[in-house]
Amino acid sequence: MSDIEVSELAKMVKAPVDVLMRQLKRAGVEVSSPEDKITDAQKLMLLEGMRESVDDAPASGGKKITLKSRSAAGGAKKPGIEVRRKKTLGLRKDTAPAAAAPVDVAAEARADELARQAEQARLERESLIQKAEQGRRELEASRLRRDKGMPEPEQPVETPVSEPATPEVADAPAEVEAKVAAETPVAPVESAPEVVPAPVEQAKVVEAEAKPEPVAQDNAPVETPAEVVVPVQEAAPVEAVKPAPKNPMEMTAKERHEAVTNAARRDAASALKRRPSRAKLKAEEAARAAAEAAKVAASKPAEKKAEPAKPAAPAKPGATAAPAKPGDKPASPAAVTRKDKKKIRTRERENPRGNVRGGNNRRGGKREVKVDRGEVKHGFEMPTAPVVHEIEVPATIVVTDLAQKLSIRATDIIKAMMKMGMMVTINQVIDQETAMLVTEELGHIAKPEKEMDDDALLAGVLGEGKDFAETVRPPVVTIMGHVDHGKTSLLDYIRESRVASGEAGGITQHIGAYHVDTDQGTISFLDTPGHAAFTQMRERGAQVTDIIILIVAADDGVMPQTKEAIKHAKAAGVPMIVAINKMDKDGADADRVLSELSQNEVLTEDWGGDVPVARISAKTGDGVDALLETILLVAEVQELTAAVDAPAKGTVIEASIERGRGVVATVLVREGTLRKGDILLCGTEYGRVRALFDEAGRPVKEAGPSIPVSVLGLSAAPEAGDEAFVVSDERKAREVADVRREKQRDTRFAAQQSTKLDNMLNQMESPDKQQVNLLVKGDVQGSVEAIRSELAKLSTDEIEVRIIASGVGGMNGSDIDLAAASKAIVIAFNVRADGTARKNAQESDVEIRYYSIIYDVINDVRNAMSGMLSPETKEVFTGLAEVKDVFKSSEFGQVAGCLVVDGAVRKGNPIRVLRDNVVIFEGELESLRRHRDDVKEVSLGTECGIAVKNYNDVQAGDQIEVFEYVEVARTI
């Protein structure tokens, strides 16, 4: 805005020029004549000067309309009224000074608008005065009517009239402040009033409560701050009459209400006097406004830097809580917080642009200051770059776990996998490769998780090994050989027992562990099965043993399982002793046995090798003592030692579940001493040892090195061959068991996924492939393992054997339910079904087969598979006829007169026509006659007439071969 002359500014604000010049000089602006020009900065100085004069104005400035009247006749008639108006402009006393709005650049353009607003404010003030006078008259008239026309002394009554709460300023040009500054909203009509001292002896103030009608019409907001004082023309002096205080019980409801209101106003006035000083508030808010102005100036574009600097506003609207106004009730903080916040939110929706607006409701709504939404700082800032997570993916992972690792929703992963052509659920397990592909598809980095080394886990559980004194331990001897070569019989003789006679079928089907105290010393024996199905048992026996005794029958020689035992011994690197058994039988040939052994790379001492040989008879006991001496000699050469006081370490030989005892694991202790109460970790299972039993079933308290013992107390049946360790902390044992179990589950899941894919491909290639579903339950882990292995070998290209589930222990209802759902046959090996299982099996029509010999299981399953095979069609020759002559028939065409030279010729069978022993036609025998009679069969040496269907090229000398198709059952 350009500079303006003082006279023009006086015209704009409608103020005398001399008054305006005095205000300029008082504000520090030197002007000498009305033609002098003032700048925008000088206008601001003028504005600040007028504000300071407002602040310094006496506090006696009233906030209410005071009606003063005197009556010489004692109020018998209405006195003359002299109305004097006085305009005062300024800030409200009961609130913090509002921040001065910046001078608009287009102030000249707004001059007319400001003048129009000033005129409108003047008219509104006059209207208020008239309404107040009218209310006074009506109130006085009503009182006169109430008193029945009796004269009475007039009492002062206060009438709160809506007016701006601003202090009085003597000079009229103070109105310039309202014109130049921002349009500051004023308080509502019913603002808290304060009594203005009347210049007369007796004043009459009309209360709003006494006459609410005029006040109810004053709800419109007053645009310009103003204060109106209406003095009444003085009449004859009348001495003021002070009303006597009334008893509260004698007061009317209206009088009690007035008393309470006056007391509240006095309390509010006293609270207003205790407010902080204006100078302090002004200094604090000026500093705050300066900081805000600097921030705004820094963000303004370059073209605005020519604008003159604006002084800091004395107060920032809304920055400081406004002090209480007289008449306001002190509100509780909770009430203010809840109600005001709700009002602010509502007003923000109504006025989203922010800015300042005044309250105009009857209840005295306060002025609100809207903060620019762009300046509000939130605690969360949106990242400028996408967040990329780097995760490690295990072998298998659930979709929800993957989403947790990536910090995203599981539905996002499901959507991504659907786009990749995979349908998954939120709880589905996916493999590592799929999880890594999905992770990379979502923009993250995936790495395969490093598998935890089992040795590292054990090292963390067992801790650092201590040095313990080692002593000589007994040797562990494993007896291996072909079935029925006398392995168990040899142990029976050594132990003076009859184990072989108690075995089902006379064969060993469990790995047995015994220790025998002989005259030469203690020896621990492991008896392995000789049947072909127990390959893994023999392999485990070879791995945990110190010496292997290879039993070979003198009358039978080297057999397949003998060769297998030789391979296990060489693979384990264990010394071997050959025992040639059944030397007491006729036909025993030890030399043949040694020769066959040499062919399998076993050179005995008799043949120049280093393998000891003992010729024995398990039945009579010949040579058994020599065999025991040889065992101890080999053990002495090996120098077998172990620490007795160390924590026990061993190997699980066998595991089973027995009724009344629970899980029973046969553990061969290799080092240390296993005691009752120790915490034992066996593969994926752990537990505290509750009881120990030797091979005879006698309870023992401890077991030393090379001693087999049965352990009770594990959480579940471990796998045969698992390593057993005694640990000190049960919590660590549980952690290791959980990790191992998780790895085992991942491996099993990967195998299942591979099997599913293979099955899908196989079904696509051969959709007619049949399946035999089996559920295997056994008494010990080794037997179940052997049965599973042997049954899996029976699968063919046409029929697949599927083991739905397997386990150790008796059958229960859940096993039968699983078999019914999968249409499987239950194989029970040395176990029985409980009552619930039997009932469920009958209701579900599930077949349960009980076995005690393993090869019976294999044979029955093989026969069942054979019955599922489609029969094979074979061609069977029935007869041969030689053509002697050819006749013609009107019915059949050519008819061959034949002589049956081999077998028999039957009507309806397929035939072949041979000429010079070469097949020239294949067809069907249409008609067979003998002496004009139709016959079904013609035997050897009989003449007949044969008509061949759809063939008329039969010649004399041809041969007609007759055959038939027969279906033959196939076997596996």
UniProtKB/TrEMBL annotation:
- Which InterPro entries is this protein grouped with? DNA-bd_dom_put_sf, EF-G-like_DII, EFTu-like_2, IF2_II, IF2_N, P-loop_NTPase, Small_GTP-bd, T_Tr_GTP-bd_dom
Q: Which SUPFAM superfamilies match?
A: Initiation factor IF2/eIF5b, domain 3 (SSF52156), P-loop containing nucleoside triphosphate hydrolases (SSF52540), Putative DNA-binding domain (SSF46955), Translation proteins (SSF50447)
Query: Domain of life, per the record?
Result: Bacteria
Which amino acid positions bind GTP, per UniProt?
A: 481-488, 527-531, 581-584
UniProt keyword list: Cytoplasm, GTP-binding, Initiation factor, Nucleotide-binding, Protein biosynthesis
Cellular component terms (Gene Ontology): cytosol
Stretch list, region Disordered: 54-102, 117-179, 254-372
Give the main location. Answer: cytoplasm
Q: Where in the cell is it found?
A: Cytoplasm
Looking at the record, the residues that make up the Tr-type G domain are 472-641
Q: Where is the composition biased (Low complexity)?
A: 163-179, 288-300, 309-335
Region annotation G-domain: where it falls in the sequence: 475-623
Composition bias, kind Basic and acidic residues: at what positions?
Answer: 117-151, 254-268
Pfam families found in the cross-reference section: EF-G_D2 (PF22042), GTP_EFTU (PF00009), GTP_EFTU_D2 (PF03144), IF-2 (PF11987), IF2_N (PF04760)
* Keyword Transferase attributed: no
Q: Name one GO molecular function term.
A: translation initiation factor activity
Which PANTHER family does the entry mention?
A: TR-TYPE G DOMAIN-CONTAINING PROTEIN, TRANSLATION INITIATION FACTOR IF-2-RELATED
Q: Which HAMAP family match?
A: IF_2_B
Per its database record, what is this protein's job?
A: One of the essential components for the initiation of protein synthesis. Protects formylmethionyl-tRNA from spontaneous hydrolysis and promotes its binding to the 30S ribosomal subunits. Also involved in the hydrolysis of GTP during the formation of the 70S ribosomal complex.
**Family indicated by similarity:** Belongs to the TRAFAC class translation factor GTPase superfamily. Classic translation factor GTPase family. IF-2 subfamily.
Name this protein carries in UniProt: Translation initiation factor IF-2
Organism of this sequence:
uncultured Thiotrichaceae bacterium
Q: Name the gene.
A: infB
